[in-house]
TrEMBL record:
The keyword Nuclease does not apply. PROSITE patterns: ABC_TM1. Signal peptide: none annotated. It is found in: Cell membrane. It comes from Sinorhizobium kostiense. This is Spermidine/putrescine transport system permease protein. It is a multi-pass membrane protein. The chain crosses the membrane at residues 12-36, 64-92, 104-122, 134-152, 240-259. Residues 68-256 form the ABC transmembrane type-1 domain. Keywords: Cell membrane, Membrane, Transmembrane, Transmembrane helix, Transport. It comes from the Bacteria. Its main location: membrane. Belongs to the binding-protein-dependent transport system permease family. CysTW subfamily.
Amino acid sequence: MRSEKSNRAPFGLKIAAAAGLAFMHLPILLIFLYAFTTEEKSYQFPPPGLTTQWFAVAWSRPDVWAALTLSVKVASIATAFALVLGTLCAAAVSQTRFFGRETISLLVILPIALPGIITGIALRSAFSIAEIPFSFWTIVLGHATFCIVVVYNNAVARFRRISGSLIEASMDLGADGFQTFRYVILPNIGTALLAGGMLAFALSFDEVIVTTFTAGQQSTLPIWMLEELIRPRQRPVTNVVAMVVVIVTFLPILGAYYLTRDGDQIAGASK
């Protein structure tokens, strides 16, 4: 009985945890609430009335669809680049030994450690010096810089837990490099890559700072939302779109959590 009581969290700690959760999530609930308000020019609490008309308005606005389509395309292609390059970097760093390996690992994760404004300024300067016009592809390249880090971190952690004896046994049995990757390595790192891809997509989809410096005249969905808040026409429409962003980014994060929580179950990990 004593041990059970001693393992219980103090009441004050429970209150502090609840207050912290409320501080983080109440603003999100307010976004959801104001998506249904009847007031279109200001935020009044409580809302003067509730309506679902803004969902139809948001659905019919072509600028919303254009921004949403651009964000999905950018996030998808940036994630694809990140999966390829991040996996290759993780394999090289975790499976081989060479001079400067730790330095290269630091350089790979540096873009996500730097403030976004520094990365944005650096990319904008590089594109200007190279005389590369700002376009869809400059946004993709900007997002890929930090998406690679997300995939790399997931992949390198899983690579380091794969027993080298599995790869050696595959080679001894006559498998070539591609067969070893397909039948031995990929089944063990697949969930880590999928989780990393989901997180990279979510990170790219709602990115603002780097996009501001690399987008030119194009507007992704987060940039569109920022412009609508600065020059509002129909505020509740912005909240409706914000609900979509929350859902689109929450689902991949939730999926990544469930995919990686049992990541310790790796073939040969204990050998």
